[in-house]
Amino acid sequence: MLGNWPEPRVRVLRMPEYHPPLGNRDALRLDFNENTVACSSRVVEALAALTPADLTRYPERGPVEALAAERLSLSREQVVLTNGVDEAIHLLCQAYLDRGDELLLPTPTYTMYEIYAAGTDASVVRVQADADFRFPFEKLLAAITPRTRMIAIANPNSPTGSVATRDQLLAIAAAAPQAILLVDEAYFHFHGETLIDAIDKVPNLVVARTFSKAYGLAGLRLGLLASRVENLRWVRRVISPYCVNTAALIALRAALEDNAYLEEYVGEVLAAREEFVTQLNRLGLRHWPSAANFVLVEIGPEHKRFCARMKAAGVLVRDRSADPGCDGLVRITVGTRAQMSVSTAAMEAALTELNIGTQYTYGGER
């Protein structure tokens, strides 16, 4: 017994907890892979035009879902907007995972897949990536069983930045027709490759997108699921009818109409990523190729003190040592070229202070 109050389900008692290291983030935010500058000015203008009367009405997702679907060359019925991709993952787990089912995960990966699955009566099967963090395609295929009911693949993956190829993803979908294949394309804009165009041809494919990264709308919590109508029918059954608020819907409409802003920001991040990798090579720090807006860097045993020194210098980075196979690794978000110049200077100072040598070379080789 926990005390003199009702106990939750056993599954909830056993769920892992997720406590993001938020708070005191008034610094250069290179810890959560957010947009590090600002959202589109059109979004700001649209929100400024929000009236008190707008807030008295329940939000209506439909018209904005139709606009998002049009941008993706899909029909309105093939898209569902959600309260961030976190809710999208939760909805899929609620709709598809039952007792005796399995969620198949390549690891390390985004923590919330496992947490939301833990709230169901399904079990989680983990497939550990190799030391180089390449997508464990063959091992994942071998782990598929008749009990596999859902497979979640972040592409590009976090925290590693690695990718699965289109052929690999299609092969996995074909090998597990009884399972939903969730391809989480949160970092699509920095990678440029998608599987959304395969939705009509692959019956069990679901693609997720977020507006928290390139679009800069993390504070408004906006995500999207795209799939065949037959799959989203069950998602619509478990979703709250008013899960996306009015301000978020107004902001998203404005954001979708500003392609110039999106292209400019993504272009800046890609240029900054290239320059940052060059600096990591100069510093002799081991790191891994990334198709996202972050780079995973090996710091070693001093990883906690390194992150603390960076924070003291006004730069927030994310210690990923608790992830499977990631001991001593730190994930650093890529912002603008000017921001990464500041980050590099802070890194050099921290490395010198902590006497961390340049014992690694590019490409993941000692």
Give the CATH topology of the largest domain.
Aspartate Aminotransferase, domain 2
CATH architecture grouping of the largest domain? 3-Layer(aba) Sandwich
| Count of separate DSSP helical elements | 13
Order of helices and strands: HEHHEHEHEHEHEHEEHHHEHEEEH
Q: Characterize the largest beta sheet: strand count, sense, and whether it forms a barrel.
A: 7 strands, mixed
Which descriptor suits the 3D outline?
globular
Across the major sheet, the strand order is 2-8-7-6-5-3-4
Which strand-content bin applies to the residues?
15-25%
The parts where pLDDT drops under 50 for at least 5 residues are: 359-366
Considering the protein shown, what is the CATH homologous superfamily of the largest domain? Type I PLP-dependent aspartate aminotransferase-like (Major domain)
- Which percent bin holds the helix content? 25-40%
Number of domains: 2
First-last Cα distance: 51 Å
* Number of strand segments: 12
In round numbers, the mean pLDDT is 93
Level-1 CATH class name of the largest domain: Alpha Beta
Outline the structure in words:
The protein is α/β, with parallel strands linked by helices and 366 residues long. The chain has two domains: 10-35 and 260-353, Aspartate Aminotransferase, domain 1 (Alpha-Beta Complex), CATH 3.90.1150.10; 41-256, Type I PLP-dependent aspartate aminotransferase-like (Major domain) (Aspartate Aminotransferase, domain 2). It contains 13 helices and twelve strands. The chain has helices at residues 10-14, 41-48, 62-71, 84-96, 111-118, 137-143, 166-175, 188-191, 229-238, 246-256, 259-283, 303-312, 337-353; strands at 28-29, 79-82, 102-107, 123-128, 148-154, 180-184, 205-210, 223-227, 294-298, 315-316, 318-319, 329-333. The strands form three sheets. A seven-stranded mixed β-sheet has the order 2-8-7-6-5-3-4, sandwiched between helices. The protein has a three-stranded antiparallel β-sheet with strand order 9-12-11, covered by helices on one side. Helix 5 (111-118) links the parallel strand 3 (102-107) and strand 4. The longest helix is centred in the C-terminal third of the chain and has 25 residues, at 259-283. It is globular.
